């Protein structure tokens, strides 16, 4: 009898549940069009007895896979052979305990942690997913790929495509991308197409283009990407001495991260590697708050995978009728039709999750605090801390609970928002530069 494969793809819709080999590349279930998951036959995989066993790999960091903050956890995403694995040293990120910020926003000492994913090679968490998806692309022999993006996906795709020897095209909404990110896509050699529309328009077009031209799609619809993004959670647990925090707080855009995090915890629990599942707080911007509206106001639920599609369709019809386009200074999460919505609902159920939306003012104020007390981050990332402040005020998160906020992107991705915030003096923490004549006496006077 043939051995069971270690991994396979499976449709998340329980009424379909179709299964496919990992040797194939789809971005939606070919039978019913729903989302695909990667599933594992864990009895075929030599998983560690305890998470701390992964620490052994710190001693063998000269092995490129042990060096990667994604692949050192490779038994937990065992879908391709080592020879296919594309790695450029992603995941060397930092869980920073931050008492100054924590105490400023009313938390007890030692309780707030910031997971700074800006330290990845392309400056955002996306590299965790790209190393996994590009490894799969190599495994299936893909030669050319594409993505839609609010910026960071395009930067990461461009970087990994170059390292994988693949051609790539990135689709971005015209005028909707921060310059740091646009500069990366061009610099790394991507074919960059600016569509006169928003991210949701680009997402629609890229799926059509990938189907038509048989390109490998690298948005988080691609289930292999989410496998890589699970490792952000492993590294948080690792940073806490292999302990699980009480809360994970994460910005929500296309909802790939939140979906991946839920899957990570479901699998760790299934494998007996953790005994508690943290709560998940997903934070939208108020100008792009589809998840908040659907979950908090329209009662949309996972419901064992039998999701009430009518609730979603009615809402999207309303958006179309209003000609709605999302707007927030956190351009990375300026998305109104999140592709991973359904998987995110599953994560919310598993993690007893909460969803909130925060204003651009709250985001930019939180961003300035993270800059002042931490390592800085881009606007979308600061939604996590703004959301934490809101949930502390609502007494949903308690000051003595351990909280890890995921800072998804580097502080230099979007300098315009930062400079405008400080120069316009409108924010609570604005720190504008002072103009001085070129005269020593006056310079010293201005410094006092
Ligand atoms: N934070 C940053 C910095 C992002 O770039 C994104 C998404 C998110 C948060 C949202 O994460 O989609 O997993 O909920 N950026 C995508 C892009 C959409 O195209 O770069 P999510």
List the main descriptive attributes of the protein structure presented here.
alpha/beta; single chain; 38% helix; 16 helices; Rossmann fold; 13 strands; binds ligand F0G
What does this structure look like?
With 448 residues, the chain is of the alpha/beta class. It has a domain at 94-120 and 225-423: Rossmann fold. 38% of the residues lie in helices and 14% in strands. The protein is built from 16 helices and 13 strands. The chain has helices at residues 64-67, 99-104, 126-139, 152-164, 179-187, 199-213, 223-229, 231-239, 256-270, 290-297, 309-321, 341-350, 360-373, 379-393, 415-423, 440-447, and strands spanning 7-11, 19-21, 36-40, 94-97, 112-116, 144-149, 167-173, 191-195, 216-217, 247-251, 279-285, 354-358, 403-407. The strands form three sheets. The chain has a six-stranded mixed beta sheet, with helices on both faces. β10 (247-251), α9 (256-270) and β11 (279-285) form a beta-alpha-beta unit. α7 packs across α9 (256-270) and α9 crosses α12. The longest helix is centred in the middle third of the chain and has 15 residues, at 199-213. The chain is globular and about 85 Å long. 52% of the residues are buried. The model has no long low-confidence stretch (mean pLDDT 97). Bound molecules: ligand F0G. Residues 124, 149-153, 220, 251-257, 332-333, 378, 380-381, 408-409 line the site of ligand F0G.
């Amino acid at each position: 009898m043939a051995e069971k494969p270690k991994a396979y793809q499976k449709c998340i819709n329980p009424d379909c549940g179709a299964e496919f080999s990992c040797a194939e590349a789809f971005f939606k279930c070919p039978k019913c069009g729903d989302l695909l998951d990667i599933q594992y036959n864990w009895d075929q995989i030599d998983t560690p007895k305890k998470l701390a066993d992964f620490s052994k790999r710190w001693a063998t960091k000269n092995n490129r896979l042990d060096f990667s903050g994604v692949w050192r956890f490779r038994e937990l995403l065992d879908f391709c052979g080592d020879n296919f694995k594309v790695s450029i040293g992603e995941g060397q990120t930092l869980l920073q305990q931050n008492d100054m910020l924590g105490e400023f926003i009313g938390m007890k000492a030692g309780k707030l942690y910031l997971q700074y994913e800006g330290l990845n090679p392309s400056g955002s968490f996306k590299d965790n997913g790209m190393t996994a998806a590009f490894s799969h692309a190599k495994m299936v022999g893909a030669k050319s790929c594409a993505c839609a993006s609010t910026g960071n996906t395009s930067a990461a795709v461009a970087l990994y495509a170059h390292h994988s020897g693949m051609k790539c095209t990135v689709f971005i909404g015209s005028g909707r991308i921060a310059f740091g990110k646009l500069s990366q896509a061009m610099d790394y050699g991507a074919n960059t197409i600016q569509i006169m529309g928003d991210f949701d328009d680009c997402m629609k077009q890229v799926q059509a283009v990938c189907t038509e031209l048989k390109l490998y799609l690298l948005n988080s619809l691609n289930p292999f990407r989410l496998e890589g993004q699970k490792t952000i959670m492993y590294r948080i647990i690792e940073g806490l001495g292999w302990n699980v925090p009480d809360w994970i707080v994460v910005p929500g855009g296309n909802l790939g991260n939140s979906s991946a995090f839920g899957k990570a915890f479901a699998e760790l629990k299934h494998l007996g590697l953790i005994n508690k599942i943290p709560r998940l707080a997903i934070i939208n911007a108020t100008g792009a708050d589809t998840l908040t509206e659907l979950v908090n106001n329209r009662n949309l639920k996972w419901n064992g995978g039998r999701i009430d599609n009518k609730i979603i369709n009615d809402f999207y019809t309303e958006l179309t009728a209003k000609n709605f386009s999302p707007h927030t200074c956190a351009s990375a999460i300026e998305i109104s039709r999140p592709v991973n919505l359904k998987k995110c609902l599953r994560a919310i159920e598993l993690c007893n999750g909460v969803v909130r939306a925060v204003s651009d003012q709250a985001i930019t104020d939180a961003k300035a605090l993270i800059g002042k007390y931490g390592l800085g981050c881009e606007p979308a990332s600061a939604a996590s801390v703004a959301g934490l402040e809101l949930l502390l005020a609502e007494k949903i998160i308690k000051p003595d609970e351990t909280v890890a906020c995921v800072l998804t992107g580097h502080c230099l991705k979007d300098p315009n928002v930062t400079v405008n915030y400080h120069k316009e003096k409108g924010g609570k923490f604005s720190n504008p530069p002072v103009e001085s004549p070129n005269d020593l006496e006056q310079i010293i006077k201005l410094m006092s």
